[in-house]
């Protein structure tokens, strides 16, 4: 089933590479690199040249320990970049939870709202319900970014994530959101230990039973650093490997920093018949 978004029906027969554009001073991996709108606009164009299928623009750092900016600051960061990105001919996603930001970026032509808080912020659900074409990605997170990694606990991480995502799907349906607009994200690294993340990845295909495409975001995550011993700037190989593993377990959207490497790797796996 293609992903219905504001301007595009996104073909998910092959994994789509979503390039990350952080318009923030403090993101864990590339904070400050694209903090100025002009830098972020140029980065959008670079990611497209590298083969990105979708651009994902965010103005709030959600690294562990992060402090949430005001919605006015977040909007000031992302809106000029969104206005430029929608002229580039590809689907534009905005990584936000605030209804004020959601409303403004959708009015500016954004195609997808990618919300780590799964539209639980007061007013957010109404915003997407009133935008009858916009794509939506809802993600599982235990806790909030500032404290989510202190002591995450699950009796069964896969069952808990599955139940949460199923509940959010039901809420979206109740406000009139069509199934074709919805993609689900297990939330790797968001309120989960390394052990939780690996268990979730191994069982990820079971989430497909919910009947929706999956997005996976493994890029440069701390779990990869724990496994390899490498700092955040040296995790490209591990990130690409994790993205391929997620695709092999059914993910159809891969959210990444290292677009060119991921695009090449997916092509190799497709040629080898390891992923559709």
TrEMBL record:
Its EC number is 2.5.1.15. It is an enzyme of class 2 (transferase). Keywords: Folate biosynthesis, Magnesium, Metal-binding, Transferase. CDD domains: DHPS (cd00739). It catalyses: (7,8-dihydropterin-6-yl)methyl diphosphate + 4-aminobenzoate = 7,8-dihydropteroate + diphosphate. Pathway: Cofactor biosynthesis; tetrahydrofolate biosynthesis; 7,8-dihydrofolate from 2-amino-4-hydroxy-6-hydroxymethyl-7,8-dihydropteridine diphosphate and 4-aminobenzoate: step 1/2. Its cofactor is Mg(2+). Residues 15-267 form the Pterin-binding domain. Coiled coil: none annotated. PANTHER family: FOLATE SYNTHESIS PROTEINS, FOLIC ACID SYNTHESIS PROTEIN FOL1. NCBIfam families: DHPS. Belongs to the DHPS family. Catalyzes the condensation of para-aminobenzoate (pABA) with 6-hydroxymethyl-7,8-dihydropterin diphosphate (DHPt-PP) to form 7,8-dihydropteroate (H2Pte), the immediate precursor of folate derivatives. This is Dihydropteroate synthase. It comes from Ideonella azotifigens. The gene is folP.
